[in-house]
Amino acid sequence: MNRRHSKAKLSRREMLAGSAGLSFAFAVGAPSLFGESDAFAQSGGRLNAYVTIAKDGTITIASPALEMGQGVNTALPLIIAEELDADWSKVRVQQAPVAAVFNHPILQQQMVVGSLTVRGYWIPCRTAAAQARRVLLNAVAERWKVPVTELTTEPSTVVHAASKRRIGYGEVAAFAQVPEKLPEVKPEELKPASQFRLIGKDVPRPDVVDKSSGKPLYAMDVQVPGMVYATLARAPVRGSGPISFNRDELKALPNILDAVALDNGVGIIGNTVEAVFAARGKLKAEWRDAPGSKVDSAANLHEYLAHVRDPARKGVVGRTTGDAIAAIAGAAKVHASEFTCDYVYHAQIEPHVCVAWVKPDGVEVWTGTQWQTRAVAEAAKAAGVGVEKVTLHQMQMGGSFGRNIFVEYVIDAVNLSKAAGKPVKMIQSRGDDVVHGRFRPMYAQRIEVGLDASDKIVGWRHRIAADTVVPYLYGQARMDAQKGVDHIVFAGADVPHYDVPTHIADHIYEERGVRTAPWRGIGAGATNFAVEVVIDELAQLAGQNPLAYRLALLKDPRARRVVEAAAKMADWSRKRDGTALGISFGKLGLPPIGFSLVGTVAEVSVDRSTGRIRCHNLWCAADVGLPVQPGNIVAQLESSLIFALGSALKERITIQDGVVQQSNFHDYEILRLSEIPPIAVEVIRSGDIPLPVGELGIPGVVPAVSNAVFALTGRRLRNAPFTPNRVKAALA
Amino acid sequence: MAVVAFTINGRPAKVEVAPDTPLLWIVREHLKLSGTKYGCGTGLCGSCTVHVDGRAVRSCQVVASQLGGKQVTTIEGLAADANHPLQRAWIAEQVPQCGYCQSGQIMQAAELLATNKKPSREQIVAHMDGNLCRCGTYPRIVRAIERAAREA
Lengths: 732, 152
Ligand code: FES
Ligand code: FES
Fold this sequence. Notes:
The complex is a heterodimer of chains A (about 725) and B (about 150).
Chain A: H1 12-20, H2 22-29, H3 40-43, E1 51-53, E2 59-63, H4 72-84, E3 91-95, H5 117-144, E4 151-154, E5 157-160, E6 165-168, H6 169-175, H7 207-211, E7 228-234, E8 242-245, H8 247-251, E9 256-262, E10 265-270, H9 273-280, E11 285-287, H10 297-309, E12 316-317, H11 324-329, E13 333-341, E14 353-359, E15 362-367, H12 372-383, E16 390-394, H13 408-420, E17 424-427, H14 430-435, E18 443-451, E19 457-466, H15 470-473, H16 476-481, H17 487-490, E20 503-509, H18 524-541, H19 546-553, H20 557-570, E21 580-590, E22 594-607, E23 612-623, H21 630-649, E24 655-656, E25 659-660, E26 679-684, H22 698-713, E27 719-720, H23 724-731
Parallel strand pairs in A: 2-3, 7-17, 13-27, 15-16, 19-20, 23-26
Antiparallel strand pairs in A: 1-2, 4-5, 5-6, 7-10, 8-11, 9-10, 12-20, 13-18, 14-15, 14-17, 18-19, 21-22, 22-23, 24-25
Chain B: E1 2-8, E2 11-17, H1 23-30, E3 49-52, E4 55-58, E5 71-73, H2 85-92, H3 102-115, H4 121-128, H5 138-151
Parallel strand pairs in B: 1-5
Antiparallel strand pairs in B: 1-2, 3-4, 3-5
Helix pairs in contact in B: 2-5
Bound molecules: FE2/S2 (inorganic) cluster (FES) (2 copies).
One FE2/S2 (inorganic) cluster (FES) sits at the interface of chains B and A.
């Protein structure tokens, strides 16, 4: 299969320009989706990059995005099938190769981030499908000598009602020609939402069958003839590498072929995975110093906090509204509060695995990644070949949650294959996956709110001290192009839905040498914790119910609706015995793309002697614009609510002397079944465009739990996660 | 190195491995039955769950020297045509997301249903509590087990 890669540069400007001009930009770009204009006979029924129709009626749809559990390999093909008017039972989904034609229209790369996949491909996929349908219609019109306007379609069938003639897509494919110039389809000519047959109704996910029977789908499952195994012990901190290690001792171990120093770690290569893991346990390495070598996260957190309190310390300012500083200076009252969030780890259950085979004429790579374009580019660079010499076999991911946007494991596997001279299956041990993880930044936050004499908000200042992500993910050039605004850290630190007349948020960089990454929900998992607890505090100051206060302060009716709906589901005003409710509002997205919105209510109890919080119920109302696959949206919300609940109650990475202190699921605990409360989700449709979903459960949970604990105990929890010790300290 | 003979999914198997080789790697890398997954290697996640003589065990915690003569069943051998009531229920309830933990979940659940035809919700939770799912498919796992118990 041809998996060519085309280089495209991503800049913040392009991204925003693309997102601002969604509808027309896509319409202009759409014709380029057709690279070829061959006759069907020559093209094997290929209508365009996305759609191929075989003579037996089988419709193969290429999915440009990679599956990591979020359901894109169902949703995108379904959107195409809808516009094509395909019989879904005849559709086969195929992973699209890495090629510019499949780039994410906003991101200009093949990349699966920000819950933007369905949103981004929405118009281009439909346009491609509509064009394919037109080609079929035109072919039938010509053959039957009828005006094309008299033809309609039913699933996989062209119909001429006047003459009661019908013909299946497969039969049309046998004689249709793809014309030189493809029919133009304008966005307003796409199928109106009222006529959708597939979108909005649940179809079974095709991948679920294979995933219930243990089929090989993941990099972990790849077997290549003649391959050997390897593991990589990465240096403890970013920028470090081995000075020396016990190579001879390792090489003498049974079934070990070699142990090699890479720039960032020590690779161990052997005939079996058990041999390389055993040897990994015997590695003794001395690592060179790097900026992160002395990191102490507990001490650093105090410094971060001191920084957000220090008026003299200037951070990089994100989006602002009006002059919040002046408004707060002139306010009758100022309310201030502070919050911290520890580093958190992705804990995807499949640790990093990559199979690489460097051959004389190129390199083959088998792995899962959230950034296919980059994986190809990095493999090419590591192998010293052009991107056209790289074949990326895209495997599904055993979870990712932001981790596999970084593709260092691809570079490592290519380097190890070069060293071995053979195909290498590189598997990270869980211990190394934790210790060499990339974490959501640690946050200290301070919010100051200026109030007038009648307790009305006049100004809102949100200060963040946190590690950065963008320079390590996208490079310093991109960070500079964004004027230093790290949108991954900032996400959620604005309050466009509330009636807040002036607003400013700034980010004080904490460059400590810690490896960081986007983590599901990016910044909003931390920033919305601070925002929504402050809203609760303002309600308290105003002597109002937190629900009523929010509803009065939210100026966007969509926002009010999710908060109201969640409260209604929770039966908000009913008094509970021994438990209490907390509520929050949250959002996901960017202004030019649109926000999906979420209202969350948590019911909790607290065991005062142990400090353990128990979450008894979660209710969530989610406005996702147009729900493409409602059942999967519920699944994604359950998933992200549980994910966030873990970060509220348990999940934390701590670092001492530059070394991550956690090493597996016993000391980095993720939630288990007995800790999962009943979860109710209501999906709200508010329009005809699908909005971000995959991370939508994240922003609301941590503040809802904190607010519930306040309702129950009168004490605010400001340091996430709310570990038993912290809870006991807060209650003391 | 030692030669170990045992039964896998009803067929005889013989592997030559170091005696301390985990069953996990024997199954998925030596015998190439890759449905059984590596998640933690320390008995903490459950993705590697298989049956040994009918009991659900963490295959990362069983080593070659304990295997002689044992009956090992993996997800691939749970039922002909992957048609176990649990597998049907898993599809009906659309349980998997990333799917990586699911072989282990199903094998763990299969042990429960083999010994307890109508488990209560509490019994399901207690039995499944050691199988982690980072995608948070837990609510659907419970529903699928209840469905399988109902429909089996
Ligand atoms: S891999 Fe065996 S329990 Fe996790
Ligand atoms: S389905 Fe992804 S870990 Fe369970």
